[in-house]
Amino acid sequence: MSASNTLDAVLARIDASQAKHRAALEALIRIPSVSAAGFPASEVRRSAEATAALLEGVGLRNVRLLSVNGGHPYVAAEWLDAGDAPTVLFYAHHDVQPPGHRDRWSSDPFEPVERDGRLYGRGSADDKAGAVMHAAAIDGWLAATGALPCNVKVLIEGEEEIGSGNLAEFLRRYGGELRADVIVLADAGNWSVGRPALTYMLRGLTDLIVRVRALAAPQHSGVFGGVLPDPVLALSKMLATLVDDCGAIAVPGLCDDVRPPTPSERKRLAALSFDEAMYRRAAGVVGDARLIGDPRRSAFERLWMQPAITVIGVDAHPIAGSSNQILAHTAARVSLRLAPGQDPQRCQRVLAEHLRSVAPWGLSVEIELGREAAAAWVCEPSGPAFEAAEAALGAAFGTAPVYMGVGGSIPFVGPFAAAFGGAPALLTGPADPTSRIHSEDESVHLGDFHRHCGAEALLLNEIAARVQPRER
After folding, report:
1. What are phi and psi of 129, to 5 degrees?
2. Which of 14, 20, 131, 223 has the fewest CB atoms lying closer than 10 Å?
3. 76: pLDDT strictly greater than 70
């Protein structure tokens, strides 16, 4: 069979199996595999077991669940019969974010529903579609030809949404088993529906919890109001000092280690057009709320190459059941996205010291540094692996991919690329700006999901043709 006929057969198998791959994605969405504390670990394990069954069902071998330090399980598998061909490591994650406010979903977050060509459900885009994409591409090759053009290893993580806290130990124990020439991560997204992208930079991530205490117990707000300090007001004043009137970070020293863009990065940023109206629609901006950040920097530089502070949780009394009290204490969890060049531990310390220094009225402040501490990741998107990805995505989508950054974090990428001696990492995936990952009504565009299944199959062929195996 000619090379052209072989690819035609592989893509035909993927086309014919669309319903099967969608059913596999829907089955995974129905498992509420929330890895965050307070949710049942048994569901994450059930998701891992279902993912393992999916990978085994498409013909992968040595399918196994791996875990360290009692953490949530990874799923690993492989097919290594391609001889001297390069080895590709496919990555995704099967754990998901909490559903958030269920009443704000248009349907049950763990019951997939199609509307207007999109499949809704928690994990639909982030990142159970990624796991199914890998399986679909492998199935296309093995079912149509009985072989893969590359050696393939697959790793589907179960702790990505909680910062991959066990990653260092996981790499120490299992890194040798997973060494590869190219890493393909299906945990990023498209530039827009129908326009693929390759992500070459990710912000880092860290966080802390700040607790403010004023009283031994709540007190009557009428009898004591106006004299006793309100810890909720105090915390609000503290949090308000984190940014200036434009919403840019105002913590002294926090941005001192931000690396400025290189000339090539500035050129890529300048080549991208920011459509504010489309961005506002995609983000669901309400009314006349303005976009924030340093106006001297472009939106893409602020999103990808500058730090950002977000208050992601506040503990006080809920409005329901509240009464006329001055609360005794309150707390907030503050998330910090990190720019290229920033040291996560240094940034934690600077942020903690600042919050202590601005606490009003002599109130007691306790800081708990978070376990999440991943540095930003940036690569130079050039060389045979990126050429292979450009060719595969361009053929599958009918248009060239955009090179872009992502303001989010994938803690896995940097340590794995480093552990494998700088193996190129190709970040792609089926999400798009309207997917609302981490929010209510998360969804994936089914057409783009299917195109990515074909693109990954083509990518294996392109990597086999272009990439030279590295010394083991």
Report:
1. -60, -35
2. 223
3. yes
